[in-house]
Amino acid sequence: MERRPGVRPQPQPPGGPAGSPAGEDNPWHTGAACRRDEVGLFFAPSKEPTAARLSREEQAKQVCARCPVLLECREHALAQPEPYGVWGGLTAAERRVVLARRRRRDAELREAARVTAAGRRRIAG
């Protein structure tokens, strides 16, 4: 979503995350708790003071905590990646941390697989 002054992005994405079984007739976000709440709760107004942002984000996370599609929403936001707002109970900064950890874990798993494969070649060799 592109951020433009005075225009808040909507928390309802156009479809489910990649690989989601939800089709166009019943996308995952139709059951999202945020559809019943103020969009402004999930996206920051321009030049929002830090204390107000933290309070708003906490309120948004409380809505997310009771949401039946929290995990689908979170995975959507991580797969896109969504650069703004609270999605799946995570802020944009928290999602960046999750993505960095996933990249690091994936790199470690690839390296472990490479070392294991090299060891097997030496034993078989």
TrEMBL record:
Keywords: 4Fe-4S, Cytoplasm, Disulfide bond, DNA-binding, Iron, Iron-sulfur, Metal-binding, Transcription, Transcription regulation. One of its GO terms (biological process) is negative regulation of DNA-templated transcription. GO terms for molecular function: 4 iron, 4 sulfur cluster binding; dinitrosyl-iron complex binding; DNA binding; metal ion binding; protein-disulfide reductase [NAD(P)H] activity. InterPro entries: 4FE4S_WBL (IPR034768), Whib (IPR003482). The keyword Membrane does not apply. Binds 1 [4Fe-4S] cluster per subunit. Following nitrosylation of the [4Fe-4S] cluster binds 1 [4Fe-8(NO)] cluster per subunit. Its cofactor is [4Fe-4S] cluster. The Fe-S cluster can be nitrosylated by nitric oxide (NO). Upon Fe-S cluster removal intramolecular disulfide bonds are formed. It is found in: Cytoplasm. Residues 33-97 form the 4Fe-4S Wbl-type domain. GO terms for cellular component: cytoplasm. It comes from the Bacteria. Residues 1-31 are annotated as: Disordered. [4Fe-4S] cluster binds at C34, C64, C67, C73. Acts as a transcriptional regulator. Probably redox-responsive. The apo- but not holo-form probably binds DNA. Belongs to the WhiB family. This is Transcriptional regulator WhiB. It comes from Kitasatospora xanthocidica.
